[in-house]
Amino acid sequence: MSNRLELQEITRTFHDGGNERTILDRLNLEVDEGEFVAVMGPSGSGKSTFLSIAGALLEPTSGRVLLDGASIIGKEKQELSELRLRKIGFIFQSANLIPYLKVEEQLMLVAKLAGMEKAKAGKRAKELLDKMELAHRRTAYPDTLSGGERQRVAIARAFMNDPAVLFADEPTASLDAARGLDVVQMIRKQVREQRKSAVMVTHDDRVLSLCDRVLWLENGKLVER
């Protein structure tokens, strides 16, 4: 097994008035391929900052982030944008689907942005929608889907460009218990089958049994209880 995601000695500080505040303090994390890790912590513990740095949306004050063994620190904006498109998949609390695009078109758009050949993209979209049990909803618009279906479309879209790492930010927050478990089971299945690394920030302890590890963000560091 190899680590698809590594955070090495990540520190992030902010200036709050005249004071310097440390949000992350020499935080370390390694996630193997095929591994699904949950991160928990109270509001204000730094989970959003952690996810933003790991997902190449925010630079740390110090430390390194590696995707598939290559550092993403110090890259230009355009390079980071390309990296997020090709190497990272995001799933959020809300599915954030484009209202005027059908289910299959949601996936084809991200493939087009990444420059994927159309025939290859069509085949990939079909495979993912089959795996997500959404083949029958291929031509449906988002407003006709259930909450669980919308999140499953978001999972398929996140996997469309074959990313190395998947980040899920409270993916069950707007779902009931049954649909939440269904969505997280889908994420776990895809991560294991496709040998991705995945990190899910959550407050939902109902889904923790589906994760390989559960870490807590405390005092700027990730700890296992």
TrEMBL record:
GO MF assignments:
ATP binding; ATP hydrolysis activity; transmembrane transporter activity
GO terms for cellular component? membrane protein complex; plasma membrane
Q: Does the keyword Transport apply?
A: yes
- Which segments constitute the ABC transporter domain? 5-225
Which UniProt key words apply to this protein? ATP-binding, Cell membrane, Membrane, Nucleotide-binding, Transport
Superkingdom as given in the UniProt entry: Bacteria
Pfam families listed in its UniProt record: ABC_tran (PF00005)
Keyword ATP-binding on entry: yes
Q: How does it sit in the membrane?
A: Peripheral membrane protein
Location in the cell reads: Cell membrane
Q: Which InterPro entries match?
A: AAA+_ATPase, ABC_transporter-like_ATP-bd, ABC_transporter-like_CS, ABC_transpr_LolD-like, MacB-like_ATP-bd, P-loop_NTPase
**Subunit structure comment from the entry:** The complex is composed of two ATP-binding proteins (HrtA), two transmembrane proteins (HrtB) and a solute-binding protein.
Say which family it is in: Belongs to the ABC transporter superfamily. HrtA family.
- Function in brief: Part of the ABC transporter complex hrt involved in hemin import. Responsible for energy coupling to the transport system.
Descriptive protein name: Putative hemin import ATP-binding protein HrtA
Q: Which organism is it from?
A: Tumebacillus avium
